[in-house]
Write a structure and sequence with these properties.
about 140 residues, four-stranded antiparallel β-sheet, 9 strands, alpha+beta, five-stranded antiparallel β-sheet
Length: about 140
């Protein structure tokens, strides 16, 4: 076999390897959308009766599905009541509940909470309360 035929065989072998490399790139590319199931939601949510407002961010960890929720709760109505924020987690193994209070009109409080495997959404619920009674509870779910 001469040198020229060896070069031709080497080029043919290289060209035959190209589809295999391209196919492996496609397989790697299809793994990326699974990471998109994790994510981040957030914004501002105001109670329907304007008793409170929360600004928040919820981040889902792609490697272990834990959720971190952080932000600030505001008491926005001068009604002699404090406001309460319940953070509920859905679709996961715990379904835990995290509570935060703000201390009266024109006050706010920060929060930063990490939860275990919490699934597909976080739900924020707010109401105002004092010893004379409670406002309606207003909830809003946010999906990852």
């Amino acid at each position: 076999m001469n040198i020229r035929s060896k070069r031709v065989k080497a080029r043919v072998a290289m060209l035959a390897a190209v589809p295999a490399v391209a196919a492996s790139a496609v397989v790697v590319g299809t793994a990326t959308p699974a990471l998109a199931a994790c994510g981040q939601v957030g914004g501002s949510f105001t109670h329907k009766d304007k008793v409170s407002r929360v600004e928040f961010t919820a981040v889902k960890n792609c490697s272990n599905n834990d959720v971190r929720v952080y932000g600030r709760l505001y008491d926005t109505l001068n009604d002699s009541r404090s406001v309460r924020l319940d953070i509920k987690y859905g679709g996961g193994t715990f379904g835990n509940d995290f509570v935060r209070w703000a201390g009266g009109y024109n006050t706010s409080t920060p929060f930063d909470h990490n939860a275990g495997d919490t699934g597909s959404y976080v739900e924020l619920c707010m109401f105002a309360y004092n010893s004379f009674g409670q406002s309606a509870t207003d909830c809003e779910p946010y999906y990852f």
